[in-house]
Specification:
The chain is an alpha/beta fold. Helices cover 33% and strands 17% of the residues.
Length: 294
C-alpha cells in the first residue's frame, strides 16, 4: 500500500470515529452495550434518553459530580432479613426508591461509584432483576473520570419522580436452599468473589475462588480487563463454560454483583446472584470449609 493510500485510510478512520462515536474499548465484549467508556459519556452528557446515577456518598456528590448525574444510595434497595444484612429489599420498597430516578423503560441507566464499581455492578443486577433492561456501568467509575480531569458539576438536576413498576426476573436470583440442592451438580458453578484470604478463612464448600478484583486492572482507576483476559480467567483457568449455570456469591450478596456483571458482559446465558450469600448460608446453620479446595 502506498503512503498516499495509508493517509486516505487513516483519514477515513478519523472521520468515521467523529461521525459515529462509540465505546472503542468496550466494543470488544460480546455485550458491549453494558459498559460505557468515559470518552463516550463525555460526548453524551446532555442526552435526554440517559440517566447518569452517582452512587458515592452524599458529601462526595455535593463536592462535585458528573454533569446531570443524580445521587442515589444502594441502601435504598437493600435490607436486613432474618439477621442477614445487605439482602435485596422487597419489590415495593425498591419500586418506591427507584421512582426518584424518573426513568421510563427506555431510559438508559448509567451507574458509577468510587469503589471499584462495587456498587455500580450491584445496582446493575438490581435493575435487571427488577426488569429494567437498558442499564450499564461506567468503566473505571469516578476515579477514571477524575483522573482524566474531565469537567465536574455541583448543580443538582431536577428530576420528576415517575412511577416504577418492577417486573421481577426470578431467574437472576438464588437462595441458600437452592445452593444446597444444586451446588454438587457438574453444570452448576458457584463462584466466591471475596478476596483469597477471606476465602481461605472460611467459604461455602464447593465454591470456586475468583476474587472480584481479578476482573479489574489499573492502579487508582481500575477498569475491566480485556475480553481475552477475562475468558482466560473464567473459561480456561476455572472451566466455567457459557452453558453452565453460574452463581455469583460473596459475604452478603453485594460484591457478587461485580462478577454477575462481568459474566453478563461476556454473554454468559445463565448467571444468577446468591442473595444473602455466605452470611445467609451460616445463618441457616450450614458449615464452612477453610483452606483452598484446589
Amino acid at each position: 500500500m502506498l503512503l498516499k493510500d495509508y493517509r486516505i485510510f487513516f483519514l477515513f478512520l478519523l472521520i468515521f470515529s467523529l461521525l459515529f462515536p462509540f465505546n472503542v474499548i468496550a466494543a470488544e465484549y460480546a455485550n458491549a452495550n453494558l459498559l460505557v467508556e468515559t470518552e463516550w459519556l463525555s460526548k453524551n452528557l446532555n442526552d435526554s434518553n440517559i440517566r447518569i446515577v452517582d452512587l458515592r456518598s452524599s458529601a462526595s456528590y455535593m463536592k462535585g459530580h458528573i454533569k446531570n448525574a443524580v445521587p442515589f444510595s444502594h441502601e435504598l434497595v437493600t435490607t436486613t432479613r432474618n439477621g442477614v444484612k445487605g439482602m435485596v429489599a422487597d419489590k415495593e420498597a425498591v419500586e418506591q426508591a427507584l421512582e426518584r430516578l424518573g426513568i421510563s423503560p427506555n431510559t438508559k441507566l448509567i451507574f458509577y461509584d468510587d469503589a471499584d464499581s462495587k456498587w455500580a455492578a450491584y445496582m446493575f443486577w438490581v435493575m435487571e432483576y427488577h426488569g429494567h433492561k437498558n442499564v450499564a456501568i461506567l468503566n473505571g467509575g469516578w476515579q477514571k473520570w477524575e483522573a482524566e480531569k474531565r469537567p465536574l458539576s455541583t448543580d443538582i438536576p431536577k428530576v420528576k419522580a415517575v412511577s416504577f413498576k418492577a417486573q421481577i426476573n426470578k431467574n437472576l436470583i438464588v437462595d441458600t436452599d437452592w445452593v444446597k440442592k444444586n451446588i454438587s451438580s457438574p453444570k452448576v458453578k458457584v463462584i466466591n468473589v471475596r478476596p483469597d484470604k477471606d476465602y481461605i478463612d472460611g467459604h461455602i464448600p464447593g465454591t470456586i475462588s475468583i476474587p472480584w478484583l481479578e476482573n479489574l486492572q489499573g492502579a487508582s482507576a481500575k477498569v475491566l480487563k480485556s475480553k481475552d483476559e477475562l475468558v482466560q480467567i473464567y473459561d480456561k483457568e476455572n472451566s466455567i463454560k457459557k452453558d453452565d449455570t453460574v452463581i455469583s456469591s460473596c459475604m452478603f450478596g453485594i460484591l457478587a454483583g461485580g462478577t454477575y456483571f462481568t459474566l453478563r458482559l461476556l454473554d454468559y446465558k445463565d448467571v444468577k446472584l446468591y442473595d444473602g450469600s455466605q452470611s445467609d448460608w451460616v445463618a441457616k446453620g450450614n458449615s464452612l470449609k477453610t483452606g483452598k479446595e484446589r
